[in-house]
Write a structure and sequence with these properties.
With 159 residues, the chain is of the alpha+beta class. It has a single domain (47-158), classed as Sandwich (Immunoglobulin-like), CATH 2.60.40. Helices cover 18% and strands 36% of the residues. The N and C termini lie far apart (81 Å). The model has no long low-confidence stretch (mean pLDDT 85). Keywords: Signal.
């Protein structure tokens, strides 16, 4: 009798296991289609102030560094890869008022400079373009000691 009891328990367990796996196999599945949404932000305009470098002394016939301060108001880092200086280079107010203005400054800048500058999100950084500013021999005496502002256009991408 014990033999039959063990055999009955074994058969009963096998049947339960089989039914349990069948129940799991019979579970329903469902699929569906649709769409989600994500909204892209807008890049904010970076700003800059460019002047002749603080450690650079321009003189007629010489070259100096261009100091560029870049402010990135975006919530992501940017990489500046091109600096395009403008032609309307101006002297600081005191020197401009004394006659160092327009063509009389004799100051020019390189036309196109390739750089690789990274500015973090919502931050500012300062960079130098070595030898990018020149003072010609036609610069007037009123320009001695002036700090020159160079308008620039920066080309940047998200980093």
């Amino acid at each position: 009798m014990r033999k039959f009891a063990k055999r009955g328990i074994t058969v009963g367990l096998a049947t339960l296991i089989g039914l349990g796996s069948t129940a799991a196999w019979a579970a329903w599945t469902a699929t569906g289609t649709g769409s989600g949404q994500a909204k892209a932000g807008q890049a904010l305009r970076i700003s800059t102030v460019a002047t002749t470098g603080a450690g650079t002394t321009l003189f007629p016939g010489g070259a100096g560094d261009l100091l560029v301060n870049v402010k990135n108001p975006n919530p992501f880092p940017i990489r500046v890869n091109t600096v395009v200086p403008g032609t309307s280079i101006t002297a600081d107010g005191a020197h401009a008022g004394a006659g160092c203005s327009g063509a009389a400054t004799g100051v020019t800048a390189e036309e196109f400079v390739t750089v690789d500058w990274t500015v973090g999100p919502d931050s500012a950084a300062q960079f130098t373009v070595p030898g990018a500013v020149r003072m010609g021999n036609g610069s007037v005496n009123a320009c001695q000691g002036a700090v020159f502002s160079v308008p620039v256009v920066l080309v940047a991408t998200s980093a």
